[in-house]
Structure formats: C-alpha cells, structure tokens
C-alpha cells in the first residue's frame, strides 16, 4: 500500500496540492477503515506529528478531510468524506467564479479590443461555460453512480 500512497501523492502534488497533505490524503483514501488518527498517519507515513498536523489542517481547510472526535477521548480520527470529489469539484467551481469576476475587472482595465483584453475575454467565456456545465455533469454523475449501484445490487 505504501507504494500506492506515494504514487498517488506524487500525482496530487503535480496537480498543485502540497506534498504532506497529498500523502495524508492518499493514506486516508487507501485505508480499509477509512479513518486514521494523527499518530497512525505519522507512523504509516514515517513523518513527524507536526508535518502530519499541518497536512491535516490543510486538507480540512479545503474540504478533503474531516475530523471526528472519539467519545471519552481527546484523540481525533481523520477521514475522507463520502463525496469528497464532489466537494473538490464544487470548490474549484467557486474558485473559477472568483477568477471570472476578477478577469471581468481586468477586461475593463486593459480594454476589450486589445490583445490582452482578447485573452481575458476568452478566459471569462471558458470559465462561464465550465461553471454553467458543471451542475449538469455532477447530476449525471449521481445518476450514473445510482445505476452502477443498482447493477451491483442485482448481481448479489
């Protein structure tokens, strides 16, 4: 499993996620229990508790991991939410909306009819298209997932 964790983490790093959060996320995603403590993560990843803590904080902030308390204990477990990819995509959607707003301001600054303005207009049009299409893509995913689950239920 360690090879998978490191391989998937390296792919996440290529996508812009910092290294330690990527390793923590990959480890949580690949564990059978679906949840690990900071100490378990530290041991599995052979990383310092401080590094794991920073990775977990980052992942919680971006919605890729949740923290769960354990009744009667001060220990916390960390887990990947059930619909993590929906959350990741929705977060990117909000980010693209912010980019679009600022790009529109840029068009007013540089002028629509300049080469820079043309690039900014193209960027706005691209993001507006993706933002408009994303809800439909997510809905189709839910329909597809339900069909897969119905098919798997029919096999048992």
Descriptive report:
The chain is mainly alpha-helical and 156 residues long. The chain has 2 domains: 2-79, Arc Repressor Mutant, subunit A, CATH 1.10.10.10; 84-155. It contains 6 helices and 3 strands; from the N terminus they run H-H-E-H-H-E-E-H-H. It has helices at residues 2-14, 19-30, 38-45, 49-61, 84-110, 115-155; strands at 35-37, 66-69, 76-79. The protein has a 3-stranded antiparallel β-sheet. Helix 5 (84-110) packs antiparallel against helix 6. The two termini are 28 Å apart. The model has no long low-confidence stretch (mean pLDDT 92).
Alpha-beta content class: mainly alpha
How many separate structural domains? 2
Series of secondary-structure elements, N-terminal to C-terminal: HHEHHEEHH
What is the strand content?
Answer: 5-15%
Report strand order across the widest sheet. 1-3-2
Task: Please tell me the CATH architecture of the largest domain by its name.
Answer: Orthogonal Bundle
Q: State the CATH superfamily name of the largest domain.
A: Winged helix-like DNA-binding domain superfamily/Winged helix DNA-binding domain
Number of strand segments: 3
By DSSP (H or I, 4+ residues per run), the number of helices equals 6
| N-to-C span | 28 Å
Write the layout of secondary structure elements.
Layout (H helix, E strand, L loop, with lengths): L1 H13 L4 H12 L4 E3 H8 L3 H13 L4 E4 L6 E4 L4 H27 L4 H41 L1
Antiparallel strand pairs: 1-3, 2-3
